[in-house]
């Protein structure tokens, strides 16, 4: 039995692996360790692990870079192999629901029920008497196996498998005061996937993953300027072009980025509109954006203009104290991308 009760939050994204370890201190949460490793392009495509060896290596690299000794990890899945549905069922005990959940789930899940792992959470009694709201989660076994193999091959032990959108919610609730009556849309923009989680009455009311993200910006800049992928990435997040890139025309970059921003936000906006149409009594009061893909210039203002909703950045380290050991530049560069990893690392903290 180890003395450490902490859990490493391991976010295996499509362009990088982020590892975070937190500790509970009298003044609140402390960021003990942070390790990051880049993934080669197309190691993960649309959630599928195409290069397991490279992903395992990146997991090891992130753990080593962060000086992390804890072996127990929490990780998160997302994408089209994960289904999250809020359903209304007749009131029953947890035991009764455990017996009938597979049958109930078959009506809502577009996969063979034998090919998925199921979980559920009873949210609260429904609006109607005799009914209760249940959050149903299904993930394809193939996807789960991919994560488990990569993590165990890296010499770690997977203890918690979460959904990325819920991990972002965890990071949000751990860092901000959330009025119970407020409806907040959390939007995490990754490289290939956007996680949307709309919270109402303190619980997920609508969850959706969209296949778009930060890579779309990089591809557009690469095409517009005929530069390498790495150079386009650098320009995307701050226009810090290399010395030899004097020919980079800000106007061309701006045009390329703005076109993609409008497309990505258009996709997100359609999901928010769908929620608004199906939950007439729940009006979204604000949007919190996170993820590396949301760092492009003008993202928040275009989002606000498109949706007419207040948009702010979610800082996953807002209330987390950082130890002096962690490099300030590393924190500044990766901080906005840590919502999933921080939310995962908080899992044991709550236990």
Query: How many structural units, i.e. domains?
Result: 3
Whole-number average pLDDT? 89
Q: Compute the gyration radius: what is it?
A: 20 Å
CATH class wording of the largest domain: Alpha Beta
Order of helices and strands: EEEEEHEEHEEHEHEEEHHHEHEEHH
CATH architecture of the largest domain: 2-Layer Sandwich
**Biggest sheet, spatial arrangement of strands:** 10-6-1-2-3-16
Low-confidence stretches: 240-245
Could you give the count of β-strands? Answer: 16
Tally of alpha and pi helices: 10
Instruction: Report the principal-axis shape.
Output: globular
Could you tell me the strand content as a percent range?
Answer: 25-35%
Distance between the termini: 17 Å
Characteristic key phrases:
Nucleotidyltransferase, domain 5; 351 residues; alpha/beta; Dna Ligase, domain 1; five-stranded mixed beta sheet; 37% helix; 3 domains; six-stranded mixed beta sheet
A few lines on this structure:
This protein has helices spanning about 50-65, 95-105, 140-155, 165-175, 215-225, 230-240, 250-280, 300-305, 330-335, 340-350; strands at about 10, 15-25, 30-40, 45, 50, 70-75, 80-90, 115-125, 130-140, 155-165, 185-190, 195-200, 205-210, 285-290, 310-315, 320. By secondary structure, it is of the alpha/beta class. The protein folds into 3 domains: about 1-80 and about 140-175 and about 315-350, 2-Layer Sandwich (Nucleotidyltransferase, domain 5), CATH 3.30.420.40; about 80-135, Dna Ligase, domain 1; about 180-315, 2-Layer Sandwich (Nucleotidyltransferase, domain 5), CATH 3.30.420.
């Amino acid at each position: 039995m180890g003395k450490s009760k902490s859990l490493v939050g391991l976010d295996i994204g499509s362009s990088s692996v982020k590892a975070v370890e937190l500790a509970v201190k009298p003044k609140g949460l402390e960021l003990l360790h942070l390790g990051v490793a880049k993934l080669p392009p197309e190691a993960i495509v649309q959630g599928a692990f195409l290069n397991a060896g490279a992903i395992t290596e990146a997991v090891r690299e992130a753990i080593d870079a962060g000086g992390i000794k804890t072996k127990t990890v929490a990780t998160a899945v997302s994408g089209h192999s994960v289904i999250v549905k809020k359903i209304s069922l007749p009131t029953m005990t947890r035991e009764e629901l455990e017996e009938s959940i597979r049958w109930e789930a078959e009506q809502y899940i577009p996969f063979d029920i034998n090919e998925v792992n199921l979980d559920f959470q009873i949210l609260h009694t429904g609006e109607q008497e005799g009914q209760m709201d249940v959050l149903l989660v299904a993930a394809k076994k193939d996807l789960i196996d991919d994560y488990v193999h990569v993590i165990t091959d890296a010499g770690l032990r997977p203890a918690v498998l979460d959904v990325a959108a819920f991990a972002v919610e965890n990071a949000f609730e751990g860092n901000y005061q959330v009025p119970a009556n407020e409806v907040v849309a959390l939007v995490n923009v990754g490289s290939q996937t956007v996680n949307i989680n709309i919270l109402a009455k303190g619980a997920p009311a609508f969850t959706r993953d969209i296949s778009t993200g930060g890579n779309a910006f990089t591809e557009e800049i690469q095409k517009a300027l005929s530069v390498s992928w790495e150079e386009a990435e650098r320009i995307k997040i701050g226009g810090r072009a290399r010395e030899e890139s004097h020919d980079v025309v800000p106007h061309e970059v701006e045009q390329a980025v703005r076109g993609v921003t409008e497309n990505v936000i258009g996709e997100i906006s359609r999901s928010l509109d769908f929620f608004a149409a199906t939950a007439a009594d729940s009006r979204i009061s604000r949007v919190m954006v996170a993820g590396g893909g949301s760092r492009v210039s003008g993202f928040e203002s275009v989002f606000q203009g498109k949706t007419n909703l207040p948009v702010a950045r979610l800082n996953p380290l807002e209330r987390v104290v950082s130890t002096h050991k962690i490099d300030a530049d590393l924190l500044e560069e990766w901080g906005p991308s840590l919502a999933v990893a921080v939310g995962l690392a908080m899992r044991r903290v709550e236990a």
